[in-house]
Protein backbone atom coordinates (compact mmCIF):
# COMPACT_ATOMS: atom_id res chain seq x y z
CA UNK A 1 0.00 0.00 0.00
CA UNK A 2 1.34 3.39 -1.01
CA UNK A 3 1.76 5.75 1.91
CA UNK A 4 0.58 9.35 2.01
CA UNK A 5 3.64 11.48 2.66
CA UNK A 6 3.21 14.48 4.98
CA UNK A 7 5.81 17.10 5.90
CA UNK A 8 4.92 19.49 8.73
CA UNK A 9 6.48 22.93 8.32
CA UNK A 10 7.11 25.00 11.48
CA UNK A 11 9.10 28.07 12.45
CA UNK A 12 10.72 26.62 15.57
CA UNK A 13 10.24 24.05 18.31
CA UNK A 14 8.87 26.29 21.04
CA UNK A 15 7.29 26.03 24.50
CA UNK A 16 3.63 26.54 23.65
CA UNK A 17 0.38 25.15 22.34
CA UNK A 18 1.46 24.73 18.71
CA UNK A 19 4.58 22.80 19.67
CA UNK A 20 2.64 20.58 22.09
CA UNK A 21 -0.05 19.87 19.50
CA UNK A 22 2.55 18.99 16.86
CA UNK A 23 4.51 16.86 19.33
CA UNK A 24 1.41 14.81 20.09
CA UNK A 25 0.17 14.66 16.48
CA UNK A 26 3.46 13.54 14.92
CA UNK A 27 3.83 10.77 17.49
CA UNK A 28 0.36 9.45 16.65
CA UNK A 29 0.89 9.78 12.89
CA UNK A 30 4.19 7.96 13.12
CA UNK A 31 2.37 4.78 14.13
CA UNK A 32 -0.10 4.93 11.24
CA UNK A 33 1.18 2.60 8.51
CA UNK A 34 -0.73 4.63 5.90
CA UNK A 35 1.43 7.70 6.52
CA UNK A 36 5.06 8.77 6.17
CA UNK A 37 5.82 11.80 8.33
CA UNK A 38 8.61 14.41 8.36
CA UNK A 39 9.17 17.90 9.75
CA UNK A 40 10.80 20.98 8.24
CA UNK A 41 11.96 23.33 11.00
CA UNK A 42 12.95 26.86 9.93
CA UNK A 43 15.74 27.09 12.51
CA UNK A 44 19.28 25.82 12.85
CA UNK A 45 19.28 22.47 14.64
CA UNK A 46 21.44 23.81 17.46
CA UNK A 47 19.24 26.89 17.95
CA UNK A 48 15.81 25.36 18.51
CA UNK A 49 14.18 26.60 21.69
CA UNK A 50 12.67 23.28 22.80
CA UNK A 51 14.41 20.04 21.74
CA UNK A 52 11.46 17.78 22.68
CA UNK A 53 10.34 17.23 19.07
CA UNK A 54 13.76 15.83 18.23
CA UNK A 55 12.81 12.71 20.15
CA UNK A 56 9.72 11.70 18.15
CA UNK A 57 11.64 9.54 15.67
CA UNK A 58 10.76 11.09 12.31
CA UNK A 59 12.90 12.74 9.66
CA UNK A 60 13.58 16.39 10.53
CA UNK A 61 15.02 18.91 8.09
CA UNK A 62 16.57 22.10 9.51
CA UNK A 63 16.75 25.22 7.36
CA UNK A 64 17.04 28.64 9.08
CA UNK A 65 14.57 31.05 7.47
CA UNK A 66 13.75 34.44 8.98
CA UNK A 67 10.22 35.90 8.56
CA UNK A 68 11.23 38.02 5.55
CA UNK A 69 14.35 36.17 4.50
CA UNK A 70 15.26 37.13 0.91
CA UNK A 71 17.80 34.35 0.35
CA UNK A 72 16.52 32.73 -2.85
CA UNK A 73 18.68 29.64 -2.39
CA UNK A 74 16.91 28.82 0.86
CA UNK A 75 13.53 28.78 -0.87
CA UNK A 76 14.92 26.61 -3.63
CA UNK A 77 16.06 24.22 -0.93
CA UNK A 78 12.56 24.30 0.59
CA UNK A 79 11.05 23.41 -2.78
CA UNK A 80 13.53 20.58 -3.21
CA UNK A 81 12.73 19.14 0.24
CA UNK A 82 8.94 19.33 0.11
CA UNK A 83 8.71 18.06 -3.48
CA UNK A 84 9.28 14.55 -2.06
CA UNK A 85 5.97 14.72 -0.16
CA UNK A 86 2.27 14.65 -1.04
CA UNK A 87 1.27 17.39 1.40
CA UNK A 88 3.13 20.21 3.11
CA UNK A 89 1.23 21.12 6.28
CA UNK A 90 2.20 24.66 7.22
CA UNK A 91 1.81 25.72 10.86
CA UNK A 92 3.16 29.28 10.63
CA UNK A 93 2.38 32.07 8.21
CA UNK A 94 5.45 33.33 6.33
CA UNK A 95 4.48 34.79 2.93
CA UNK A 96 7.70 33.90 1.10
CA UNK A 97 7.80 30.44 2.62
CA UNK A 98 4.19 29.78 1.59
CA UNK A 99 5.00 30.95 -1.93
CA UNK A 100 7.93 28.52 -2.10
CA UNK A 101 5.74 25.66 -0.89
CA UNK A 102 3.14 26.51 -3.51
CA UNK A 103 5.71 26.60 -6.30
CA UNK A 104 7.06 23.21 -5.27
CA UNK A 105 3.82 21.73 -6.70
CA UNK A 106 3.29 19.84 -3.44
CA UNK A 107 -0.24 20.40 -2.13
CA UNK A 108 -0.23 22.86 0.79
CA UNK A 109 -2.44 22.61 3.87
CA UNK A 110 -2.48 25.66 6.11
CA UNK A 111 -3.22 24.92 9.76
CA UNK A 112 -4.87 27.84 11.56
CA UNK A 113 -3.50 28.51 15.04
CA UNK A 114 -4.56 32.18 15.32
CA UNK A 115 -7.88 33.98 15.29
CA UNK A 116 -7.20 37.65 15.95
CA UNK A 117 -7.33 39.49 19.25
CA UNK A 118 -10.45 41.49 19.97
CA UNK A 119 -8.74 43.52 22.68
CA UNK A 120 -6.33 45.09 20.19
CA UNK A 121 -7.57 47.53 17.62
CA UNK A 122 -6.42 46.59 14.15
CA UNK A 123 -4.16 49.17 12.54
CA UNK A 124 -4.25 49.84 8.82
CA UNK A 125 -1.09 47.74 8.53
CA UNK A 126 -2.70 44.90 10.49
CA UNK A 127 -5.81 44.90 8.34
CA UNK A 128 -3.74 45.02 5.16
CA UNK A 129 -1.61 42.12 6.35
CA UNK A 130 -4.69 39.99 7.04
CA UNK A 131 -6.17 40.85 3.63
CA UNK A 132 -2.91 39.86 1.92
CA UNK A 133 -2.75 36.63 3.90
CA UNK A 134 -6.30 35.69 2.93
CA UNK A 135 -5.60 36.23 -0.76
CA UNK A 136 -2.42 34.16 -0.56
CA UNK A 137 -4.09 31.34 1.35
CA UNK A 138 -6.89 31.17 -1.23
CA UNK A 139 -4.39 31.09 -4.09
CA UNK A 140 -1.73 28.80 -2.67
CA UNK A 141 -3.43 26.31 -0.37
CA UNK A 142 -5.17 23.08 -1.27
CA UNK A 143 -6.93 23.14 2.07
CA UNK A 144 -7.22 24.94 5.40
CA UNK A 145 -7.60 23.23 8.77
CA UNK A 146 -8.90 25.26 11.72
CA UNK A 147 -8.36 24.22 15.33
CA UNK A 148 -11.85 25.38 16.43
CA UNK A 149 -15.15 26.58 15.02
CA UNK A 150 -14.25 29.97 16.46
CA UNK A 151 -11.05 30.09 14.39
CA UNK A 152 -12.84 28.91 11.26
CA UNK A 153 -15.55 31.53 11.58
CA UNK A 154 -12.98 34.29 12.11
CA UNK A 155 -11.12 33.45 8.89
CA UNK A 156 -14.24 32.77 6.83
CA UNK A 157 -15.43 36.27 7.74
CA UNK A 158 -12.06 37.59 6.55
CA UNK A 159 -12.60 35.89 3.19
CA UNK A 160 -10.80 32.53 3.34
CA UNK A 161 -12.48 30.16 0.89
CA UNK A 162 -14.88 27.47 2.14
CA UNK A 163 -13.63 24.74 -0.19
CA UNK A 164 -11.61 22.07 1.71
CA UNK A 165 -11.97 24.22 4.82
CA UNK A 166 -12.31 21.96 7.85
CA UNK A 167 -12.35 22.07 11.65
CA UNK A 168 -10.14 19.54 13.40
CA UNK A 169 -9.58 20.24 17.06
CA UNK A 170 -6.10 19.99 18.51
CA UNK A 171 -5.45 16.72 20.27
CA UNK A 172 -3.62 15.72 23.42
CA UNK A 173 -1.37 12.82 24.31
CA UNK A 174 -2.56 12.49 27.88
CA UNK A 175 0.15 11.88 30.47
CA UNK A 176 -1.13 9.54 33.16
CA UNK A 177 2.32 8.62 34.48
CA UNK A 178 3.43 12.06 35.70
CA UNK A 179 5.16 12.58 39.02
CA UNK A 180 2.23 13.42 41.28
CA UNK A 181 4.51 14.57 44.10
CA UNK A 182 6.74 16.88 42.06
CA UNK A 183 4.76 20.10 42.56
CA UNK A 184 4.29 19.49 46.27
CA UNK A 185 7.95 18.66 46.79
CA UNK A 186 9.02 21.88 45.08
CA UNK A 187 6.45 24.06 46.84
CA UNK A 188 5.43 22.37 50.13
CA UNK A 189 3.16 25.30 51.02
CA UNK A 190 0.55 24.11 48.49
CA UNK A 191 0.16 20.65 50.06
CA UNK A 192 -2.95 20.36 52.23
CA UNK A 193 -3.13 24.11 52.50
CA UNK A 194 -6.65 25.16 51.60
CA UNK A 195 -8.29 25.75 48.25
CA UNK A 196 -5.88 25.99 45.30
CA UNK A 197 -6.76 28.20 42.33
CA UNK A 198 -4.25 28.06 39.49
CA UNK A 199 -3.24 28.52 35.89
CA UNK A 200 -0.47 27.33 33.59
CA UNK A 201 0.30 29.99 31.03
CA UNK A 202 2.72 32.25 29.28
CA UNK A 203 2.67 35.58 31.06
CA UNK A 204 1.88 37.82 28.10
CA UNK A 205 -0.83 40.43 27.58
CA UNK A 206 -3.62 38.55 25.87
CA UNK A 207 -3.40 35.66 28.34
CA UNK A 208 -4.75 38.18 30.91
CA UNK A 209 -3.21 36.60 34.00
CA UNK A 210 -3.81 40.00 35.62
CA UNK A 211 -7.56 39.28 35.41
CA UNK A 212 -7.03 36.08 37.38
CA UNK A 213 -5.00 37.89 40.05
CA UNK A 214 -7.68 40.54 40.42
CA UNK A 215 -10.44 37.96 40.53
CA UNK A 216 -8.55 35.89 43.08
CA UNK A 217 -8.01 38.94 45.32
CA UNK A 218 -11.76 39.59 45.37
CA UNK A 219 -12.43 35.90 46.05
CA UNK A 220 -9.83 35.87 48.84
CA UNK A 221 -11.72 38.62 50.67
CA UNK A 222 -14.58 36.13 51.13
CA UNK A 223 -12.67 32.85 51.34
CA UNK A 224 -9.33 33.31 53.08
CA UNK A 225 -8.14 29.69 53.14
CA UNK A 226 -6.87 29.71 49.55
CA UNK A 227 -3.73 29.97 47.44
CA UNK A 228 -3.17 31.15 43.88
CA UNK A 229 -0.68 29.03 41.94
CA UNK A 230 0.75 30.78 38.87
CA UNK A 231 2.80 28.41 36.71
CA UNK A 232 4.74 29.98 33.85
CA UNK A 233 6.91 32.86 32.78
CA UNK A 234 6.89 35.68 30.30
CA UNK A 235 7.30 39.36 29.61
CA UNK A 236 4.62 40.40 32.14
CA UNK A 237 6.11 38.55 35.11
CA UNK A 238 7.39 41.70 36.86
CA UNK A 239 4.15 43.63 36.38
CA UNK A 240 2.13 40.67 37.66
CA UNK A 241 4.29 40.45 40.77
CA UNK A 242 3.81 44.18 41.31
CA UNK A 243 0.04 43.76 40.97
CA UNK A 244 0.08 41.02 43.61
CA UNK A 245 2.03 43.28 45.97
CA UNK A 246 -0.23 46.27 45.33
CA UNK A 247 -3.26 44.12 46.16
CA UNK A 248 -1.59 42.97 49.38
CA UNK A 249 -1.94 39.25 48.64
CA UNK A 250 1.75 38.24 48.44
CA UNK A 251 1.35 35.55 51.11
CA UNK A 252 -1.43 33.86 49.13
CA UNK A 253 0.20 33.80 45.67
CA UNK A 254 2.91 31.44 44.44
CA UNK A 255 4.88 32.17 41.28
CA UNK A 256 6.61 28.96 40.19
CA UNK A 257 8.36 30.27 37.09
CA UNK A 258 8.68 28.07 34.01
CA UNK A 259 8.09 24.38 34.75
CA UNK A 260 8.43 21.30 32.56
CA UNK A 261 6.32 19.09 34.85
CA UNK A 262 3.17 21.08 34.12
CA UNK A 263 0.76 18.19 34.69
CA UNK A 264 1.98 17.76 38.26
CA UNK A 265 1.11 21.39 39.02
CA UNK A 266 -2.28 21.13 37.30
CA UNK A 267 -3.05 18.06 39.39
CA UNK A 268 -2.78 19.96 42.70
CA UNK A 269 -5.14 22.73 41.59
CA UNK A 270 -8.75 22.59 42.74
CA UNK A 271 -9.83 24.97 39.98
CA UNK A 272 -7.97 25.92 36.80
CA UNK A 273 -8.58 29.38 35.34
CA UNK A 274 -7.64 30.54 31.83
CA UNK A 275 -8.70 34.17 31.26
CA UNK A 276 -7.27 34.55 27.73
CA UNK A 277 -9.01 36.70 25.15
CA UNK A 278 -9.66 35.29 21.65
CA UNK A 279 -7.80 32.04 22.31
CA UNK A 280 -7.91 29.99 19.08
CA UNK A 281 -8.22 26.68 20.93
CA UNK A 282 -6.95 26.05 24.47
CA UNK A 283 -5.03 22.80 24.83
CA UNK A 284 -4.39 23.38 28.55
CA UNK A 285 -8.13 23.40 29.24
CA UNK A 286 -8.46 19.89 27.84
CA UNK A 287 -5.43 18.71 29.80
CA UNK A 288 -6.97 20.01 33.02
CA UNK A 289 -10.39 18.56 32.29
CA UNK A 290 -8.75 15.18 31.76
CA UNK A 291 -7.53 15.48 35.35
CA UNK A 292 -11.13 16.10 36.42
CA UNK A 293 -10.55 19.78 37.17
CA UNK A 294 -13.22 22.46 36.67
CA UNK A 295 -12.01 25.04 34.13
CA UNK A 296 -13.14 28.66 34.38
CA UNK A 297 -12.82 30.86 31.27
CA UNK A 298 -13.99 34.25 30.05
CA UNK A 299 -16.95 34.95 27.81
CA UNK A 300 -14.64 36.49 25.19
CA UNK A 301 -12.18 33.57 25.39
CA UNK A 302 -12.78 32.37 21.83
CA UNK A 303 -11.85 28.71 21.45
CA UNK A 304 -11.60 28.29 25.22
CA UNK A 305 -15.22 29.36 25.58
CA UNK A 306 -16.20 27.00 22.76
CA UNK A 307 -14.73 24.06 24.67
CA UNK A 308 -16.06 24.85 28.13
CA UNK A 309 -19.59 25.63 26.96
CA UNK A 310 -19.87 22.04 25.67
CA UNK A 311 -19.37 20.53 29.12
CA UNK A 312 -19.87 23.18 31.87
CA UNK A 313 -21.25 26.41 30.42
CA UNK A 314 -21.84 27.82 33.90
CA UNK A 315 -18.03 28.10 34.27
CA UNK A 316 -17.92 30.84 31.61
CA UNK A 317 -17.72 34.24 33.29
CA UNK A 318 -18.09 37.75 31.90
CA UNK A 319 -15.70 39.74 34.12
CA UNK A 320 -13.43 39.75 37.18
CA UNK A 321 -16.31 40.10 39.65
CA UNK A 322 -18.13 37.14 38.12
CA UNK A 323 -14.89 35.15 38.26
CA UNK A 324 -14.54 35.84 41.99
CA UNK A 325 -18.14 34.78 42.57
CA UNK A 326 -17.63 31.57 40.60
CA UNK A 327 -14.48 30.71 42.55
CA UNK A 328 -16.39 31.24 45.79
CA UNK A 329 -19.24 29.03 44.59
CA UNK A 330 -16.84 26.24 43.59
CA UNK A 331 -14.86 26.49 46.83
CA UNK A 332 -18.01 26.10 48.93
CA UNK A 333 -19.13 23.07 46.90
CA UNK A 334 -15.76 21.36 47.06
CA UNK A 335 -15.41 22.01 50.79
CA UNK A 336 -18.37 19.68 51.36
CA UNK A 337 -17.31 17.23 48.64
CA UNK A 338 -19.97 18.36 46.19
CA UNK A 339 -18.16 18.30 42.83
CA UNK A 340 -20.28 16.14 40.59
CA UNK A 341 -18.61 17.15 37.35
CA UNK A 342 -15.41 15.10 37.47
CA UNK A 343 -16.55 12.20 35.29
CA UNK A 344 -18.19 14.43 32.67
CA UNK A 345 -14.99 16.48 32.35
CA UNK A 346 -12.82 13.41 31.89
CA UNK A 347 -15.25 11.91 29.38
CA UNK A 348 -15.36 15.15 27.39
CA UNK A 349 -11.56 15.46 27.37
CA UNK A 350 -11.19 11.92 26.02
CA UNK A 351 -12.74 13.11 22.75
CA UNK A 352 -9.48 15.00 22.18
CA UNK A 353 -7.25 11.96 22.52
CA UNK A 354 -4.57 12.49 19.89
CA UNK A 355 -5.24 9.15 18.22
CA UNK A 356 -8.85 10.22 17.59
CA UNK A 357 -7.60 13.49 16.12
CA UNK A 358 -5.00 11.67 14.01
CA UNK A 359 -7.76 9.59 12.41
CA UNK A 360 -9.63 12.76 11.51
CA UNK A 361 -6.50 14.13 9.84
CA UNK A 362 -6.07 10.93 7.85
CA UNK A 363 -9.65 11.23 6.58
CA UNK A 364 -8.97 14.85 5.65
CA UNK A 365 -5.80 13.96 3.73
CA UNK A 366 -7.71 11.24 1.85
CA UNK A 367 -10.51 13.68 0.98
CA UNK A 368 -7.97 16.07 -0.55
CA UNK A 369 -6.44 13.24 -2.57
CA UNK A 370 -9.89 12.52 -4.01
CA UNK A 371 -10.07 16.14 -5.21
CA UNK A 372 -6.92 15.78 -7.32
From TrEMBL:
Residues 15-172 form the Glycosyltransferase subfamily 4-like N-terminal domain. Its EC number is 2.4.-.-. CDD domains: GT4_PimA-like. InterPro entries: Glyco_trans_4-like_N (IPR028098). Pfam families: Glyco_trans_1_4 (PF13692), Glyco_transf_4 (PF13439). SUPFAM superfamilies: UDP-Glycosyltransferase/glycogen phosphorylase (SSF53756). Keywords: Glycosyltransferase, Transferase. GO terms for molecular function: glycosyltransferase activity. It comes from the Bacteria. PANTHER family: D-RHAMNOSYLTRANSFERASE WBPZ, GLYCOSYLTRANSFERASE. This is Glycosyltransferase family 4 protein.
